[in-house]
Design a protein that fits this description.
Number of strands: 0
Largest sheet: none
CATH class: Mainly Alpha
Distance between the termini: 22 Å
CATH topology: Four Helix Bundle (Hemerythrin (Met), subunit A)
Helix content: over 70%
Strand content: under 5%
Number of domains: 1
CATH architecture: Up-down Bundle
Shape: elongated
Radius of gyration: 15 Å
Number of helices: 5
């Protein structure tokens, strides 16, 4: 769940159009990011998994969702340490949490666009 107070602090110097654009970019890039992670895990390509999970971790951090941040950090760490055990489960939990984040961001975007 998005921490609205931290989100507002994070984006305090941006106008609503810029925030909407950032959300839209995330929406546009998200399916490809998830597919790359899925493929990296399937291939046990830890180098690309590290790169892609670290990138997603940074993007998710912008939106101040503690659960998604924690799971993306965990996936990044597992890739760094080349841990196979539990990798698929962490990924599945991240996808589920990220899907909830997407829904919250859709609501936030609608609120901002309506103002």
């Amino acid at each position: 769940m998005i921490d609205r107070q931290k989100l507002n602090q994070n984006f305090q110097y941006f106008d609503k159009e810029t925030i909407i654009e950032i959300i839209d970019i995330f929406f546009e890039e998200y399916p490809d990011r998830i597919e790359k992670l899925r493929k990296n895990i399937e291939d046990l390509d830890f180098i690309q998994l590290k790169f892609n999970s670290h990138s997603l971790k940074g993007v998710i951090a912008n939106f101040q969702d503690p659960e998604c941040s924690e799971l993306s950090c965990k996936l990044d760490e597992m890739a760094k340490n080349q841990e196979k055990n539990g990798l698929t489960g962490v990924f599945q939990n991240l996808v589920a949490a990220s899907d909830k984040l997407m829904e919250e961001l859709k609501g936030l975007r609608a609120e901002m666009a309506a103002k």
